[in-house]
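quick one, 147 residues, struct below
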Amino acid sequence: MKPLRSHRGFTLIELVVALTIIAAASATALGLMSSISNRSALAMQREQAAGIASAYLQEILGRSFSSVPGGSSRQTFNDVADYNGLADAQPADHNGNAIAGLKGYGVTVQVIDVNFGSPSVPARRVTVNVTDPQGSVASISAFKTAP
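---
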């Protein structure tokens, strides 16, 4: 029979140290993955808010610069100035129908008359602000000039 020293294997202390190191590394890796997925969700919400703002801005800039009678609701807005003060608690299409899946986002629109250059060229600055569910605001602006 061989002496006990010639047998190979792990001692109980070595096993406990190895398990502790593996547990610490696993906890760190899981924490990193959690942090990355959280930031990914926030980035998606910000991207969604920017897309909503862009869609509203395109709709508004497609309207006439000159004030046209009518336009008492979003469905009948017919010129850029009609959109001033628009506040949607939830994003909606141009007919006022709420868009599914976007609850928690809010939209506000501001239209300001400005003049450019010399001779003066009338224009309207349109600013669309979209607040995401986390409270971050995506803002996009553009100018519409008189024909």
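The beta strands are 87-88, 106-116, 121-131, 137-145.
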